[in-house]
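Comment thread on ticket #2218

A.B. wrote:
> Attaching the input chain for the structure job we discussed in standup.
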Amino acid sequence: AIGGWGPGSVSTVEEYDPATDKWAKKADMPTARFGLSTSVVNGKIYAIGGGLNNDVSFATVEKYAPATDTWTKEADMPTARQLVIASAVNGKIYAIGGRRVWQAPLPTVEEFDTGFREPQSVTPTGKLPTTWGEVKAAR
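C.D. wrote:
> Ran it. Output below, let me know if you need it in another format.
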């Protein structure tokens, strides 16, 4: 659980362990915010965008390393926004939509290259996927 509203933006980070059914406090995010999005690339969690309140949005990107419980600053997004959605594909993070403040939703999509390259996915038939569809087991 990263950031949120409590009242006001918070920087709190907590980790849940389902094996023990317990929560553990982790290092706070450097930037308190709500309405951010997170993506995982190569075992690191990227906290993207968010806001201080409904009147202030951030372009901030920070990377969390769970193994060392530390945060580092990454390059800001070109567009400051909160309520953004982010998703990672092959070492790149795509920040999609969101809003600046009390405005209409943004149609903006921006790409952040983390520099990490994941191995190509291969279907059970040994072919690289090129279309959407159901994957069937090889015979």
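A.B. wrote:
> Thanks. Noting for the ticket: The longest strand covers residues 9-17.
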